[in-house]
Amino acid sequence: MFGEFGRIVGFDRLVALHLNDSKGNLGSRLDRHEHIGKGNIGREGFRWILNDARLHQLPRVLETPKGEELKEDAANLRLLRSLVRRR
Question: Which pTM value belongs to this model?
Fold first, then answer.
């Protein structure tokens, strides 16, 4: 997918990443967000995204389901940080 994105759109035009896992399968046209690692993208998909050098400088927005105290955000951020390989 990223190869096609780079060829068709170009990474120079990418300005941010919107991070959430997906309840729907690829091509399902279902836009339902899931917690990181609990959907169809999975932990390994996020590990790949977070460690791709072409994406390192981009701002990231976490858009996952929220509870009243936002504990889920803290858990999702901990998981995302654990997937980043230290340089």
Answer: 0.83
